[in-house]
Amino acid sequence: MGRGTRLLLAVVCGVAVAGVYAGQPVLGPMGHDLGVPRDSVGWLVAAGQLGYLAGLVLLVPLGDLLDRRRLIAAHLGLVAAGLAITAAAPVAWMAFGGLALAGAFAVVVQTAVAYAAAISPPGERGRTLGVVTSGVVVGILGARVVTGSVADAWGWRGSYLALAVLATVLGVLTLVALPPDVRAGGERYGRILRSLAGLFTRPVFLGRGLIAFFLFASFGTLWSGLALPLAGAPWHFSEAQIGLFGVAGLAGALGAARSGRWADAGHAGRVGGVALVLLIGSVLAIGQLGWSLPLLIAGVIVLDFAVQAVHVGNQHVLTSAFPSRTSSTIGGYMVFYSLGSALGAAATTALFDAAGWSGPTLLGAAFALCALVTWALAERRAGRSRPGEQPPEHASGAEGHDLRATP
């Protein structure tokens, strides 16, 4: 895979996921404009996450059946439609519908990641996943910077409209620039969905999935609610100023770009454990937001470094374990991601309203600790593999063949 292809897929991922998270720095004015109560504005982010969940189950498995290049283009077009509906929504229910639609087809991210993994040589899979999934983190964090700046100039609706235009342009560019992804045929959609369900019986898949659930629940709790204390006393920051904190997170995420190379070298498990310890420390630093901006910035950098390192390692483990079902595997794994992110986004605003910033901080720390415990149990199980037998994380063709036959 060439550098240009990696870069294009990373941009596709960034723009698609930005539409899901674009509301985070403008939750206050967006909720006020649409008449959403303050203790419920977190659902403006959660709506996209729930749509994403539906897309993971129903749409991502299509990548194991159809030309992924065409799927990427079609899904980008529907992401653009959802974002345009949100931008034009006069009432809350229409905005929720647009966000859910954009979220459902933002699973183009997983189709792009599976496409990248499938066409990469095994020795470069981690490197490729590191670059492509960096686009996801850049999109999540860049959405805060861009949305905040555009919102100051044109309002929150202008932010969603700009993202809709970008998604449309990328859909056309994808058809022109990416090579076709020819399928052998012979599979049926129902069989692929059953094989997806079969993944949830696999210990290696469940272990990595639960790590992702707690990881992104912690991430969503902190990032989805961050705008609320920053907009209040003692800081009183504007949307643009709040969005700039995404730059700190971006630095941390890009710092973890080498995590794919570490995974290629067989260090995914060890790196994941260290990153999860760092995650707990970052939550505690972000919890000092009320009196220390330097600690907040340091915490945000470490938070996004840790999340990216664990996320890339998880995907490397799973695409290596189930090589014949990369789309279904990535889609199933991201179900855990989506549920965790939605839980964090929905809980943080209610907790902040009831207990101030200490509520989301404690919840984020609890989720991070659960992720670390789950990682330790998964590594312990892998270490108990019989002598001379490859652990599930490094299984290849046999594991993929078994999955194909799952009833």
Tell me about this structure:
This protein has 18 helices and no strands. With 407 residues, it is mostly helical. The longest helix has 53 residues, at 125-177. It is globular.
Looking at this protein, list some descriptive labels.
single chain, 407 residues, mainly alpha, 0% strand, globular, disordered C terminus
Judged by helices, strands and strand pairing, the structural class is: mainly alpha
What's the SSE pattern? HHHHHHHHHHHHHHHHHH
- Tell me about the biggest sheet? none
Poorly predicted regions are 386-407
* Number of β-strand runs: 0
Q: How far from one another are the termini?
A: 34 Å
Topology, please?
Layout: H1 3-21, H2 27-34, H3 43-58, H4 68-88, H5 92-105, H6 108-119, H7 125-177, H8 189-199, H9 203-225, H10 227-231, H11 239-243, H12 245-255, H13 259-264, H14 268-286, H15 293-321, H16 326-355, H17 358-383, H18 397-404
Describe, in short, the structure shown.
By secondary structure, the chain is mostly helical.
